[in-house]
From TrEMBL:
Protein name as annotated: SMP-30/Gluconolactonase/LRE-like region domain-containing protein
Signal peptide bounds: 1-21
Molecular function in Gene Ontology: zinc ion binding
Lineage: superkingdom: Bacteria
The species this protein was found in: Geoalkalibacter subterraneus
Length: 345
């Protein structure tokens, strides 16, 4: 109940400040140093780096100390309302899609600055959800599920155009970029993942290799590894379907259940630099890590608001430095972790 009241108060504050591009002062804190626990504890493969921002009335925690170090004593001027998606460039710039506030938060952690993007090409955003960054081409892709559009922006937010599918999108959500710059769009209503070239030309549609009609049942997220493997998170089938770099079916990860290796409410997916698969589950409040054969390697997280704990985790994103960004929705923050590569997890 207290979090619901807090959310309403934050929304009221946001409506008063939405038209301004707020900037919070602070010292540089990028790249972040490890300040928290690792998993497994005896020989960590994943380590907590910090989180941002923090609710104004939260107690002093490691995440709050990092946020205060980044933004100074004042809180970032635009608090998170209902964050779902995230993207990052690895140099301290982070974008967070917040459909609850109808905005995208733009944070420069290296300079301690933050602003918001509430319009694209003069049109107000309604439900920004998916984000993907093509740093090589300076392109930020943004999916708005209510507008049923995928926008092409520069990293500074300036408008470049839209992705035009062969038939209109039903509800574009999760986005991903592959190693050659192709864009993947998970369409929740159409039940497919659409693939577009860096020039915006339609290439093909990926469908389920496990359903009779060849459609996913609520594909909400998609990820592509550095090696070209594609992972489609099919939320209502409680699994991740894998495809090879040639787009041929590779296998399935997960299934419905309440034990490790299975899913109850999967919401986010990404790969690390070695091709391991990460899946965030909002029912378990954890992140599970698998190899490409579907074997569970490690899981971490539980309900709570401390380092490495979650409340309805959602979107996941991995930057070029193997940092993992995990949207922690009802803790109103994004947590940052690092993957520590070794011969195996």
């Amino acid at each position: 109940m207290l979090k619901h009241i807090f959310c309403v108060l934050l929304l009221s504050h946001l409506l008063l400040t939405l038209g301004c591009a707020g900037v919070g002062g602070g010292r540089s804190s990028w790249p972040p140093d490890a300040i928290g626990p690792g998993w497994p504890s005896d020989s960590p493969r994943v380590r907590f780096l910090g989180s941002f921002p923090h609710p104004p009335d939260s107690e002093e925690t490691q995440g709050k100390r990092l946020s205060r170090f980044i933004f100074g004593e004042d809180h970032p001027p635009h608090p998170l309302i209902n964050p779902v998606g995230v993207a990052a460039d690895g140099d301290g710039r982070v974008w967070v899609a917040d459909p609850g506030g109808r905005i995208v938060h733009v944070l420069d952690l290296s300079r301690g600055r933050s602003s918001v993007m509430g319009q694209v090409d003069g049109a107000a955003l309604e439900a920004p959800a998916g984000l993907a960054l093509d740093a090589d081409r300076d392109r930020l892709y943004l999916a708005d599920t209510q507008l049923k559009k995928v926008f092409i922006l520069r990293s500074d937010g300036s408008y470049l155009g839209e992705i035009i599918p062969p038939t209109p999108f039903g509800r574009p959500a999760g986005l991903a970029i592959d190693p050659v710059g192709n864009l993947y769009v998970a369409d929740v209503i159409r039940g497919r993942v659409f693939v577009f070239s860096p020039q915006g030309a339609f290439i093909r549609a990926l469908g389920s290799h496990k359903t009779p009609n060849g459609l996913f049942l609520r594909p909400i997220a998609v990820a592509v590894s550095d090696q070209g493997q594609v992972a489609v998170l099919d939320a209502m089938n409680f699994r991740v379907e894998l495809f090879g770099p040639d787009w041929l079916p590779h296998g399935v990860v997960g299934g419905i259940g309440d034990s490790p290796g299975l899913f109850a409410r999967p919401r986010g997916v990404t790969f690390d630099g070695d091709g391991n698969l990460y899946v965030a589950d909002a029912a378990f409040d954890n992140i599970q890590i698998f190899d490409l054969e579907g074997r569970l390697l490690l899981y971490f997280g539980k309900s709570g608001d401390e380092a490495g704990q979650f409340c309805l985790p959602a979107g996941l994103y991995r930057d070029r430095a193997n940092r993992l960004y995990a949207v922690d929705s009802c803790n109103y923050r994004v947590q940052i972790f690092e993957y520590l590569p070794m011969s195996g997890l």
